[in-house]
What we know:
Elements: H1 13-17, E1 25-29, H2 33-39, E2 45-48, H3 52-55, H4 67-80, E3 85-89, H5 99-113, E4 117-121, H6 127-135, E5 140-145, H7 151-154, H8 167-179, E6 184-188, H9 192-201, E7 206-209, E8 217-220, H10 222-225, H11 242-258, H12 265-268
Parallel strand pairs: 1-2, 1-8, 2-3, 3-4, 4-5, 5-6, 6-7, 7-8
Helix pairs in contact: 2-4, 4-5, 5-6, 8-9
3-methyl-2-oxobutanoic acid (KIV) binds at residues 29, 47, 49-51, 89, 186, 188, 209, 219, 221.
Amino acid sequence: xxxxxxTVRRITVPDxxxxxxxxxxxxxxxxxxxxxxxxxxxxxxxxxxxxLGMVMHGMDSTLxxxxxxxxxxxxAVVRGTQRALVVVDMPFGSYEESPDxxxxxxxxVMKETQCQAVKLEGGARMAETIRFLSxxxxxxxxxxxxxxxxxxxxxxxxxxxxxxAAWAVHxxxxxxxxxxxxFAVVVEGVVEELADRxxxxxxxxxxxxxxxxxxxxxxxxxxxxxxxxxRPPKFVKxxxxxxxxxxxxxxxxxxxxTARAFPGPDEVYx
Length: 270
Ligand code: KIV
């Protein structure tokens, strides 16, 4: 009998990679320790997404998110979790310039947060960087289709692949990142048939968001599915009513304070 306390085994990159075509991969974003601890029980991987710029910090897009902020939230999520693989997003401007710059910044993310992998956006154009990082011990999750860091180039957060003529480019992007060594690829905001073609075309798990049920896994922004975002994207199924619940709780608290109705120290400390 071991004298060691039971420890929870964390899901690894090869575990996730091996789920291609298997049981669907469950994933959510999380940006802070307490929610990460709850998500950890059910998710195979947790993404510390750069969507935190919009969700946590009220930005209009993800473009203004600095690397230090990703590292700060990444540390919190790793501290809050034991089981799920933690992936941290590389923010805009931290990896596109060259494989060397990407390696320097991704290595910082891995060292300082102790996460297990990074995610970066882009298809064929990022293949060289993905190979450079994964050959040097940094597992990379890729992200194709609607890539929010390219919002200005795309002219908005637009569903991709409405025009069938563009499908080949997206499929080639997914193939390029898989061949370069990405262990999984997020497929965001593309028409369903294109998402299905991408899933068939690559031998790594596809993680859908606003894409297709047939992807190898799904991801949602936690706050969207919890009902905290008053205007969630159309494809989001809302599983909770946290926004109204928080408002109700805050109102009850304000009413208690106003009426001096909360318990006093003599009742609490006895
Ligand atoms: O930043 C993020 O949360 C993401 C997911 C939406 C995939 O990239």
